[in-house]
Specification:
heterodimer; A: 243 residues; alpha/beta; Rossmann fold; 2 domains; six-stranded mixed beta sheet; five-stranded antiparallel beta sheet; 11 strands; B: 291 residues; mainly alpha; 12 helices
């Protein structure tokens, strides 16, 4: 049973079809690899699903609700979150606060008079330890290395206690040690029953991690199925070689 | 030495005035990333509210000041909701927002001129404390001017503590860094912006009241307050509250000590000269890091 489905989802930028009647689904407890050459619509899909771009037509079925488009303030309510291809953190605040801001959703007046409770602090510590950044908790986000920033962004996604996480190239630019750490996190999230979308160019990682693969080309669904089968298909190889 | 003390006191008074307007200006810039030109007019509304309520409406002075500060905060918030928020929703560029805010400044100034005439009005200081002249060394300062400096110190300390330690402060800084991401992770970004605009506008309103009590009110006073606040903010570092404070007092000192050497008619030219120097050599201001 899918937790997130798109039905004929389309997004155009001028004359460019970034997404063209795309119908896909993400299932709980499954890592869905989303692959395709540059410009195939992978990041646009994530941006439409998280309300950064409104869709032009089609629908998203999320939590049993059919939506024409998703507005970004509602993303969290649907248990959905994401990471970005180019890391986007809150640069001026410490690593710990980057997690704390995501950990609790609260109104302005409550936030003015309350401070994060011990429960939140404990959870923030767990998350920072999970991504190996507890020692760096006081460092401003902008002071962290590229890999640490990627890990902090993953930590922020975990802090939202989501049901679905869309990872946009989480391994790009990471050292092997950090890649292992991300691997561990993804496997753990799958075991916990989360639905995971993994945009990735590294086919070895897709073979190793993905339960299901979706191939996009020119905003359209080119192929989908188990990784071993999909990655051997001629049109998929051609789409990549033709890049 | 006599003149030195007086100039130092004058610098502190000017710095305090600029800092109160610059605080709101920088808070709004910090969350919305545009230079809100209408902010100066919101400050002058504070002064005019006291004129309307205390002088013409015969309300007790403290009640008038409280209502004036509240009115300035609400006005700033209302303008944000009715004018800037819809533009943000349509992804208007910061240039569009700046030009719109210039329109807001002109409309508010015109409304003040229509309601209160273009005449210069003095606000009576009802308290003996305000009019009392204190001697510090060889310089003199009135109780009102001391209140202005005290208000600057207290409001900045409070503001710094809120931004540094409260959850709201974290939300404000998160929205300032990346409003889109803040929204996605569940920060109520529009309410955070609204709260910040209310806060900044209320402080600007208080500045308008204190400046009005010190030097009087006139419809275009907001523009001068705005220019000084914007200059102070750019010098200190746009978006940084500590930068606003630093820039405001630095500007106050440069302006006042500058006229020790050159005629006082050049005071405004000095502040703009400093602005040009910063824009040329350190456009990100004293506290911001170069991007």
């Amino acid at each position: 049973m899918a937790i997130l489905q798109t039905h004929n989802l389309s997004k155009h930028f001028g004359g460019v079809h970034a997404l063209d009647r795309l119908s896909i689904q993400l299932k709980p407890g499954q890592i869905t690899g989303i692959i395709g050459p540059n410009g195939s619509g992978k990041s646009t899909l994530v941006n439409v699903l998280t309300g950064i771009y409104p869709s032009d037509s089609g629908a998203v079925i999320l939590g049993g609700e059919q939506l024409k488009t998703i507005r970004s303030p509602e993303v969290r309510d649907y248990g959905l979150t994401r990471t970005f291809q180019e890391v986007r953190l809150f640069e001026q605040i410490p690593a710990l606060d980057n997690i704390l801001v995501a950990l609790t959703e609260r109104g302005v007046f409550r936030a003015l008079f309350e401070r994060h409770k011990i429960l939140h602090q404990t959870r923030a510590r767990e998350i920072l330890e999970r991504v190996g950044l507890w020692e760096k908790r006081r460092a401003l986000a902008r002071e962290l290395s590229y890999g640490q920033r990627k890990l902090l962004e993953i930590g922020r996604a975990l802090a939202m206690d989501p049901k679905i996480i869309l990872f946009d190239e989480p391994y790009a630019g990471l050292f092997p040690e950090m890649m292992k750490q991300v691997n561990g996190i993804l496997r753990e999230l799958r075991t916990q029953g989360l639905a995971i979308a993994l945009i990735e160019h590294n086919m070895d990682l897709i073979r190793e991690l993905a339960d299901h693969v979706i191939v996009l080309d020119g905003g359209e669904l080119l192929a989908e199925g188990p990784p071993a089968e999909v990655l051997a298909r001629r049109e998929v190889i051609e789409a990549y070689l033709g890049e | 030495m006599e003149i030195f003390t007086q100039l130092a006191l004058n610098s502190l008074i000017a710095g305090a005035t600029y800092s109160l307007v610059a605080l709101g200006f920088n808070l709004v810039f910090g969350t919305t990333r545009f230079l809100n030109m209408g902010h100066g007019a919101v400050a002058s509304v504070g002064g005019y509210m006291v004129l309307a309520l205390a002088r013409n409406g015969h309300l007790p002075f403290t009640v008038s000041v409280f209502l004036a500060v509240l009115a300035a905060g609400l006005l700033g918030w209302l303008i944000d909701r009715l004018v800037y928020a819809p533009l943000r929703t349509r992804r208007a560029s910061s240039s569009v927002l700046v030009i719109t805010s210039l329109g807001v400044l002109i409309v508010l100034q015109s409304l003040l001129a229509i309601i209160f005439t273009s005449q210069f009005w003095t606000l009576a200081a009802p308290s003996v404390w305000f009019a009392t002249v204190f001697s510090i060394g060889s310089g003199n300062i009135t109780g009102l001017q001391l209140t202005l400096i005290l208000a600057s110190v207290l409001i900045f300390s409070g503001g710094w503590l809120v931004l540094r330690f409260s959850d709201f402060g974290k939300q404000v800084r998160a929205v300032g860094d990346d409003e889109e991401v803040a929204r996605i992770i569940g920060v109520p970004s529009e309410r955070v912006i609204g709260g910040t605009v209310f806060w900044g506008s209320a402080v600007a309103g208080l500045a308008g009241v204190l400046v009005g009590l010190d030097t009087g009110v006139y419809p275009t006073m907001g523009l001068l307050l705005l220019l000084s606040a914007a200059t102070a903010s750019i010098i200190g570092g746009l978006g940084s509250v500590t930068g606003a404070l630093l820039g405001a007092y630095l500007l106050g000192f440069v302006e006042n000590f500058g006229i020790w050497f050159i005629p006082s008619g050049w005071k405004t030219a000095i502040s703009f000269g400093v602005l040009v120097i910063f824009l040329l050599f350190r456009p990100h201001g004293i506290l911001n890091k170069e991007k």
